[in-house]
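Chain X:
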Amino acid sequence: MKTYWMYVSMRSFNEYDVHSVTMKRKQKDSLPEIYSTLYEHYGDLHWWPAKTPYEVIVGAILTQNTAWSNVEKAIEQFGDDISPERVRSMPIEELQQIIRPAGFYKQKSLYLKAITDWYASYNCDTEFVKGRTLSELRRELLKVHGVGNETADSILLYGFDLPTFVVDAYTMRLFNRFPVDAGENYLQVKEYCEALLPKDPLIYNRCHALIVMHCKDYCKKKPLCMGCPLEDRCKSSNQIKL
């Protein structure tokens, strides 16, 4: 099935100034190298799996504190009509029953109502939203009930194609193990990643998606180091072998 992100032009990382990325490797950490290795291994993952920017917004709320498989179940219950108009007009009890598979459905129903009201303030117009600066939009989103750093950045990057890097638990796990000295909190790690990668939403999109996939396949809570594409360079992998 085609997704919203499959309509984005399929630019290759090689189209960017690889020399400029290489120069950034003067730092001891090697995020560009991690990106290139994972991209070679997994290819383009076409993330986020959604048909519209609003579906990205809904998914970003529903994925809080739950597995993506549960989000998919909730999305399916909307049927063919997952629109801001429907969510705004829907009784809260009905919305709660639809999103129940995603867990925490009572609080998430309130979050969905709040974020939909925010989107409606822009007439649910993607181009209208993108007429504001990234920093303005991010500040606005962080004031919306139920929206934190990760949710805000997910909406901006995957929903509106804006260059803001998404940090999550998978990112922190991989960086701690490799290790990548990116910082200790969300904003420090975000700033680090944005400093080392080309400021392009497609690169940010792919890098985050690749990290998530890699942590699900290999860098799990209990790591599976055998066959990992980063095995030879990962310090934790080498220590496990000893």
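Chain Y:
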Amino acid sequence: MSFMRQGHIIRDFDPGRGVSIATLAYEYPSGFLIPEHAHGSDQFIYATRGVMEVHSDQSLWLIPPSFALWVPARVRHRIRMPAVVSMRTLYLRPGLVQRADSSCAVLSVSPLLRELVVETVRIGKLRLRMHEHCALRDLTVLHIGRATPIPTETRLPRESRALAVAMRILDSLPQSPSLETLCGEVGVSARTLQRLFSKDVGVDVDSWRRQARLTRAVELLLAGDSVKQVAFSVGYNQPSAFVAAFRRMFGFTPKAWVERVSKA
């Protein structure tokens, strides 16, 4: 698969005349990078297997098969495959799905929505003149519009040293290296690093790390991991400390929050 020049609008996959939804199914090898680009259509990007790492401007999302990414038309993004990914993408005429999101949003994928996406991709293109295609389109559009947004965005700093520290933090959440260690690895003073984070993402390093932990925790909780497993996976020594931090950010305990999202 080839992509057009970096940053340009790609229209190859947009729905053509008489088509409401076009699709793409593709198997990506581990380490594959789709460079920054945008499409002329709205996108619903879903992986039936594997995890996608998606960047758009300063935002980063890790998207497992329980989630999908909504990308409005003309929004630039790039996608990296940390491992093998089976991607299934819908390209929809702008305005067909009614969502309040003006930028990218991670959406929870229900079992029904998953099957609707898989069937749409199997058909390839949903044509306006075919009644069964229109019925499938209407159901798919309805459930994309109703899908629950999930707060899994991590905002990254732009400055190279601050970005290197941010990526190191994300790669080592369970170990939680100290600020002094991180600064030593990158070659920047703690004071300078704090200033860079405050300028680029609006919070200090420790606050950013807490947000990153809880963002990753949401992904793991919705993947079915226990509260105890998640707490240790994102760097908390005590599950009770994790539960308290989660409640402060989301207003509910992890278990109660997952139950509310699952019922939405």
